[in-house]
């Protein structure tokens, strides 16, 4: 009898592999941190230390949140219903000048708890004090791609930009061999980063073979500002600097023309779509169907809780599908399978993690979630992809496994003390209120 660590059984397995294979009445075996076997027959040939009964639910890859600012969970509801630039300049940036490492650690733990409990197993983070974000993610057991945000102006963490590059390089070196932590170089945007900063960031990313992540073409005002400064739109500006390439992960990409999309496809630029944030800030609707038609890899993100206001990728999938249908006046646009792939395997490709996660295949890391489908709003189930995208919510996830580690069991978080995490978050919110009243 073959010895394994975990067997997840008695469910329908949505592999999200290249063939979108579905195993009804399937089981999945985990040995160490990886998937050892998938099948529908022969379960008796395996013996496990732990068995998880999916109870006729859905077994699928953990979701990937391609863009967020995890610690901004502590800014949830802080400054709603405002335009992006007013929101940033009058509320977010001033408050961020007061935060410290403990704030980021506390906020990231809160975000990790929310993400695990809503089916996300991997996230890409851009924020300050990212060493503390890594500490929180590792404690929670979450897979992550993180980077310290870089600006022209001094950071409350590292000070001048030269120190920001040193800080980023130290993160890359420290975590380059970690099983669940990956590091990226992350300049904030074209309107907060000079050409010299962008070029240096790009060189650092290429030197170490890591991704470069940036907010790009998010608003019309950003596009206008870039054109006024440099005489080019955002994509043209990056192209002139020699920065476009498959190492670049561009967040938002709302305001693109057909030439931009063609150029991004030619250079293999990867995109993260954040529909709820773009809607809430009235930034616009990203041309995702056009990007996909050109072969651009597109993942899905929530952005931070200050502009969403949650980290639930199930609601993000629902919104992504419906937004593009009404925007294009086409009910066939962004079908459920396409959107679910954006949150799983295509999201993994967008982050450069497709060899590790995003689909359930032998040899890949065991990032697995179980969705309880025996609920009124998920009954009946003619098409599991449709139910997941249009009906499911994060609290339908009952089990979560990351890198072979069981991190949530029957809705109970195993890696973090949820009561303590939320209590610490409430304490930090009192500090935020004080900063706003100063």
Describe the structure.
By secondary structure, the chain is of the alpha/beta class. It has helices at 84-96, 101-116, 130-140, 161-175, 195-208, 220-230, 234-240, 258-267, 275-280, 288-293, 313-328, 336-343, 345-351, 384-391, 418-437; strands spanning 2-14, 22-31, 34-39, 46-61, 63-68, 120-127, 143-150, 181-183, 186-187, 212-216, 248-252, 270-273, 298-300, 368-371, 397-402, 405-409, 412-413. It has an eight-stranded mixed sheet with strand order 3-2-1-4-14-15-16-17, with no helix packed on it. Strands 5, 6, 7, 8 and 9 form a five-stranded parallel sheet that branches. A four-stranded parallel sheet has the order 10-11-12-13. Helix 2 packs across helix 15.
Q: Descriptors for this entry?
A:
alpha/beta, TIM Barrel, 8-stranded mixed beta sheet, 5-stranded parallel beta sheet, 15 helices, globular
| CATH class category label of the largest domain | Alpha Beta
CATH topology of the largest domain: TIM Barrel
Major sheet: arrangement of strands: 3-2-1-4-14-15-16-17
Please give the CATH architecture of the largest domain.
Alpha-Beta Barrel
Overall body shape: globular
Q: Helical stretch count?
A: 15
Helix/sheet category: alpha/beta
Q: What separation lies between the terminal Cα atoms?
A: 67 Å
Rg over CA atoms, rounded to whole Å, is 21 Å
Corresponding CATH superfamily of the largest domain: Metal-dependent hydrolases
Total number of domains: 2
What value does the average pLDDT take? 97
Strand content: 15-25%
Largest sheet: 8 strands, mixed
